[in-house]
Write a structure and sequence with these properties.
The protein has 176 residues and is an alpha/beta fold. The chain has one domain: Rossmann fold (3-Layer(aba) Sandwich). 56% of the residues lie in helices and 14% in strands. It has eight helices and five strands; from the N terminus they run βαβαααβαβααβα. The chain has helices at residues 15-26, 33-41, 45-51, 53-70, 88-94, 105-114, 127-145, 159-175, and strands spanning 4-9, 29-32, 74-77, 96-102, 150-153. The chain has a five-stranded parallel sheet with strand order 2-3-1-4-5, sandwiched between helices. It is globular and about 45 Å long. The protein starts with a strand and ends with a helix.
């Protein structure tokens, strides 16, 4: 059985990085949900957020639904908030395997600081405010993230180990 794989997690958890590597290891296609939205609507994520977060979340849900309808054998890296809105988590779970990339807050901060422009909710925060925001987001989202089929501690894992964990999990799904 081949299926879509959805990577979820906090901003800065490496969803796009791991999606590319996992897709290569499995021979799957890869889609970054944010890049898909940008291509579809011809506006950057910060431009879409500037309209309103609700506007962006509606577009995000629509894009996720399109991907689910038209793609198989694809690793999809979602935005950090994607599973939280519009029952997206249930939609992903019903249409593939959801993997939660768990990463320590300190590692999230370091990753976000490397590319702040890509995260409009966090871009202009100083160190303390960023720490507080990440802790707040984690507390708000952890219950949903924990509903994933598989949880992977992603801040200290090799590409090979990550791919093997997912392959093992998928093969178990195929047997059941």
């Amino acid at each position: 059985m081949r299926l879509n794989i959805y990577l979820i997690g906090m901003p800065g958890s490496g969803k796009t990085f791991w999606a590319r590597r996992l897709a290569a290891a499995l021979g799957y296609n890869v889609v970054d949900l944010d890049a898909y939205i940008v291509a579809q609507y011809q506006k950057s994520i910060p431009q879409l957020f500037a309209i309103s977060e609700q506007h962006f979340r509606n577009l995000e849900h629509e894009a996720l639904s399109q991907i689910i309808t038209h793609r198989n054998d694809t690793v999809i890296s979602t935005g950090g908030g994607a599973p939280i809105y519009h029952n997206n988590m249930d939609l992903m779970k019903q249409n593939g395997c959801v993997i939660y990339l768990e990463v320590a807050i300190a590692a999230l901060k370091a990753n976000i600081k490397r590319r702040p422009e890509s995260r409009p909710m966090l871009a202009k925060l100083d160190d303390n405010a960023l720490q507080e925001k990440l802790e707040q987001l984690y507390l708000e989202r952890k219950e949903i993230y924990q509903k994933a089929h598989l949880k992977v501690r992603a801040d200290n894992i090799s590409r090979t180990t990550f791919a093997e964990l997912v392959k093992t999990y998928i093969s178990q799904l195929n047997r059941s």
